[in-house]
Amino acid sequence: MMRGKEQGGTTTLPSTVTASASAALPGRAEFGHDHFAYIDGQRMRVGATRTLRPLDGESGCAFRQRVDTLVHQLLACGTLEIDEEIRGGIVVQAIIRLHSPPEPAPIYDDHRLAGGRPAGARGRRGGS
Fold first, then answer.
1. Residue 15, pLDDT score
2. pLDDT at 80
3. Which element (helix H / strand E) includes 65?
4. Residues 96, 100, 102, 108: is their CA dihedral positive or negative?
5. How many Å apart are CA 29 and CA 26, to the nearest integer?
6. For strand 90-104 and strand 30-39, is the pairing parallel, antiparallel, or unpaired?
7. Concatenated DSSP letters for 72-88?
8. Per-residue confidence at 125, pLDDT binned at 50, 70, 90?
9. What is the b/e burial string over 27-64, where b = at least 16 CB atoms within 10 angstroms of the residue's CB?
10. Mean pLDDT highest for which of 18-22, 41-45, 109-113, 123-127?
11. Burial class (CB in 10 A: 0-12, 13-18, 19+), 119
12. How crowded is residue 69: how many other Cβ atoms within 10 Å of its Cβ?
């Protein structure tokens, strides 16, 4: 099921997507999070969310076509929803939500430091 929303700009995709590198590895103009559930004591991936923003110089139509192409590539993975955030009549971001069948998602060894600010640094002004 796909739906548009004039406020809220959120798109969710299943986190079990392996066919699309852009869904698994957010790039410069996208970011997101994965959804997990614990079923009978086992950690399972049950979906993902990706937020996409237009690229520099990309028209609203081209952006929507890019989102539509990605959605059609992911339809086999589960149920998709799309929210579009509209400001001043212009789409500023799309959020794709993917709800997928549960898939085992073990926690792998990761030596990178956790933490940081999801929204970036705060309290700094232009170049300081």
1. 40
2. 92
3. helix 60-74
4. negative
5. 8
6. unpaired
7. HHHGGGSEEEEEEEEET
8. low
9. eebbebebbbeeeeeeebbbbbbbbbbbeeeeeeeebb
10. 41-45
11. exposed
12. 10
Q: Are 102 and 39 within 8 A, CB to CB?
A: yes
- State the Cα–Cα distance between residues 23 and 75, nearest whole angstrom: 12
Q: Which two tokens stand for residue 43?
A: 């950690």
Token representation of residue 42: 């086992």
59-113: pLDDT as tens digits: 999 999 999 999 999 888 889 999 999 999 999 999 999 999 999 999 988 888 8
* Closest among 97, 79, 102 to 13, alpha carbons compared: 97
Q: Could you write out the DSSP letters of every residue in 4-29?
A: --SS---EE--TT--S-HHHHS--TT
Exposed/middle/buried for residue 24 (C-beta within 10 Å: 0-12, 13-18, 19+): middle
Q: What share of the chain is helix, strand, coil (3-state, %, to 5)?
A: 15, 35, 45
